[in-house]
Design brief:
Chains A, B: Keywords: DNA-binding, Repressor, Transcription, Transcription regulation. The structure is a homodimer of 258-residue chains. With 258 residues, the first copy, chain A, is an alpha/beta fold. The longest helix of chain A is centred in the first third of the chain and has 15 residues. Chains A and B meet through α8 and α9 of A and α1, α8 and α9 of B. The structure holds a DNA duplex (30 and 30 nucleotides).
Chain lengths: 258, 258
Amino acid sequence: MLTRERQAAIALRLTRDGKVLAGELAAAFEVSEDTIRRDLREMASAGLCERVYGGALARTSAPPPPPLHERATIAAPQKNALAAAAARYLVDGATVFIDAGSANLALAARLPTDRRLRIVTHSPAIALAVPPRPQHPVTLIGGRYDAETGACLGAETLTEVERLRPDLLVLGACGLDAVAGVTAFDPEDAAIKRRLVRSSVAIMVLATAEKLGTVAPFFVVGVEAVGRIVTEAAAKGPAFDALGETGADIVLAGPIGR
Amino acid sequence: MLTRERQAAIALRLTRDGKVLAGELAAAFEVSEDTIRRDLREMASAGLCERVYGGALARTSAPPPPPLHERATIAAPQKNALAAAAARYLVDGATVFIDAGSANLALAARLPTDRRLRIVTHSPAIALAVPPRPQHPVTLIGGRYDAETGACLGAETLTEVERLRPDLLVLGACGLDAVAGVTAFDPEDAAIKRRLVRSSVAIMVLATAEKLGTVAPFFVVGVEAVGRIVTEAAAKGPAFDALGETGADIVLAGPIGR
DNA sequence: CAACATTGTGCGTGTTCATGCATGATTCGG
DNA sequence: CCGAATCATGCATGAACACGCACAATGTTG
């Protein structure tokens, strides 16, 4: 029996019984308990189960996706490169709505200091990320705070958002696909995004390579409405080519220092 | 049995019974009381229970307010009387938005059968309460369901709501005061209510006696915007008199059979 | 083909953990 | 204020554990 095969069988038992015992598994698969423990350790570090004394438990509740400030630390170089590339398209004097998202957070942190930009956001993390400078005043839209998306959502936020007419919307995308368009994980988030799209003059999306070609459950807007997509050179592939045919202005971000 | 498993079982008993006894648990799980005490200590430090002499109590953080269908059973005769009085003001052919609330639920259940009324609501309970009749078509507005208020709230709901122009809004009021106006317990609920008020032609509020003169945290609309208030004869008092001076049409509901 | 790297496994060793018991302190109820 | 119940703490014990090492099977390179 292959190791991966055995681990898959353990995962099956986990979902079926909610727990597994190390000794039990060792007997069932005719391997030593050490091997089982190694399996469980591996699976736990991959987030497939919770390791406890005597065995392992199935991951209870929803596997909590890392909050925004943690997402910001993964693939940080790529996101900084995206932000640097996107920053070139922020025109002096514009009112820019920055949607929630880790790539957008990077943009907020490295706004070009040589241009005046009025920043509006419904994400507290982004509001905090903008370095305090007189040329970059920040307006934070409030509402019911949702830790998952890292933004304020709900009816109150929507009411505030619809009063805005930003020159540029830096839209966050949980998924970006030529056919499915921009999609989001949360229905409330998607509703806010849709409203933002309607009221914004121009739209720009920052998307790391792994977002391209992926689809999240809730539709926001088609790609044809997005004027500019900033992504990585590493993203080239079928999904990238399909996006290029939609007419959007695609900007490739290289390493920062280029 | 795994330690964590046992603690989960204890947590289950806690939520079910509200309390647990150390000796009882020791017998049930066939471990020493020391082990149970260790469990309870651990759980208490994790905030899962409150440690007391002899056992532990469930964390009484949020006292769960009774859901809508339970609130409907308290003061039911008064609410039915309000509903009967309010029903007289539903004009044939009107589109009526019925806001969430137990008094409004009573109204939905006893709509006058001799008039055609297009019912719109964002409360599933109210949609279900309307007896299925061809002259009373029901439109349910969706969104994120909130069990506390018994209605759909959030950005999606607001988006749908603002497309409506109902002839009459039967507004729910958590508090009704001559000075503070109509107020609500939930900010999201209040935001939806405000939008409904803006788009409705006429507004009617059903308020039991105990609502009069009370104030909830979130402002919805001043009393001057409410065209008709239906309340109980038993409500007469200072708060009632103050309301009368605002110019609203005050309707007193008597016992049903009068 | 031979030498080498990689991987999965089992075993030995020392460590950590869960548990029950003993002990003395604390709390409760009368 | 006293006895009984309950508790926290320390300790002993055995089970479960992580780690390092050896070995075999397999794949890789020269």
